[in-house]
Amino acid sequence: MTPKILVFAGSIRTGAYSGQTADAAMKELAQQGAEVTRISLVDYPLPIMDEDLEREKGIPENVYRLGRLIAAHDAVLIASPEYNASIPPLLKNTIDWVSRLSKDNGKPLRPWAGKPIALCSSSDGNFAGIRGLYHLRAVLMNCKADIITPQCSVARAQDAFDTDGSFRDERTRGMMEAVCRGLIERAKLTSTRVGA
């Protein structure tokens, strides 16, 4: 089985370190034999999560689009920046909206439940976004996602990437290799993708 893995960053800023980290993950996953889909959250704009809005207008179509995409993959890798030692609002809002899904055209749809997820982070400081991953892990676990233990945190991200997008530092390369290997192994063991 060739695992299908969805990759996205928690930032849509031009030149975002998390985007560069997601690109590095995409390359490594492909090298290790996975079929990779790389998306940007800029293509799935969403209003701020609001239960009044949900009651009045229903769940936005972009939530269903994302939910179906997550469900159609064996695993997900998220590369996140860190905002004030926590989760960036774009990513938190996306996770919250997708967690509202329970059905799609009468069929069960709970995209996060049991889904293997790998977490990566990046920042321009020495903490490498690790503090934000603590909160991100807790939120996704509350959504019943299956978070793998290895993670890759890119410190001093402004200097971390070579011109071809690869990591300059051998230790960071090793972390990413381990994360991708762990995610592929978990995906093969627990595939629950819809429409497989």
TrEMBL record:
MF (Gene Ontology): oxidoreductase activity
Top-rank taxon: Bacteria
Keywords annotated in UniProt: Oxidoreductase
Listed SUPFAM superfamilies: Flavoproteins (SSF52218)
EC annotation from Swiss-Prot or TrEMBL: 1.-.-.-
Pfam families found in the cross-reference section: FMN_red (PF03358)
Class of this enzyme: oxidoreductase
Keyword Nucleotide-binding: no
Keyword check for Cell wall biogenesis/degradation: no
UniProt domain NADPH-dependent FMN reductase-like: residue ranges: 3-157
Protein's name according to its UniProt entry: NADPH-dependent FMN reductase
Lineage: Bacteria, Pseudomonadati, Pseudomonadota, Alphaproteobacteria, Hyphomicrobiales
